[in-house]
Amino acid sequence: MVWLKDGSPCQTSIDAKRCKLKIEKSRRGDTGKYELILKNAKREVKIPIDTTVLDRPGKSEGPMKVSDVTKEIAVVSWKSPLDNGGSNIERYIVEKQDVERGTWVPASEVNGDNTLLRVTKLITRKEYLVRVRAVNKEVELLETSGTTLAKNPYDEPNAPGKPEISDWDNDRVDLEWQASDKDVGVPVEKYIIEHQEKGRDQWVQVSPYMSVDNNVRITDLPENGEVEFRVKADNKAGESESNSSTDRVKITEYQNGRTPTFVKKLTDTSALLNSEATFITEFDVNAVSEVK
Questions:
Q1: pTM exceeds cut of 0.85
Q2: Which residue has the higher pLDDT, 263 or 200?
Q3: Is residue 258, in this structure, part of any structural domain at all?
């Protein structure tokens, strides 16, 4: 009598009527094809046995790849473990870690046939680690080799030039500014215009609130209000810092003043010789508006 494993003899204890094969502390390496051979003078009998030692799966094959990173999303991929632990991989559990916080939190799960995941809800400019657990009846970890910075593959534009007021009237202002000049890999898509009224702390978007060119005519402004303006550039990565604001302008119809006008005109009159003659009129000098 003899026991074979994958064609090689095993150490066994044998007596006249019993042959026993005992594996102490079985390991995954003990998985294989076993065969018991019984032989006498008449014939030989072989009894094959397939034996599987179940364990957690091996570590997913790395390195983990990180691609298509933006300020909120990163795509991670990996390869299936070479050893599934003796049973099918049921799913992969993916976790992420904000390096500053140092704690692992669930990102998502995918089924055992999938080895790619879009990790979402990242915080811009934060660095992350990602790890994946292969799951059958047990689990095994694979981690990214380094941190991943959650940012778009391009930067926000720099601030455009300081806006200048080129013209205005009692219900509109014309603005123009130098375009953003920093090459960040993607073009400026639009400029966002905001205004602030005298005596208020809040900047609000104007009407229209954006322009694709480096000039705009702004309407729906409060007549005789005193207002200043600022501009931000915007691309796929986000908004730039605000540029310096304009000087404050008073929204009035006559920006350059106008000819004085008489409210009450002079009229022809007559007077007696050697007596006093009086002429009375009312007028508006229409002073020039100011940009302060």
A1: no
A2: 200
A3: no
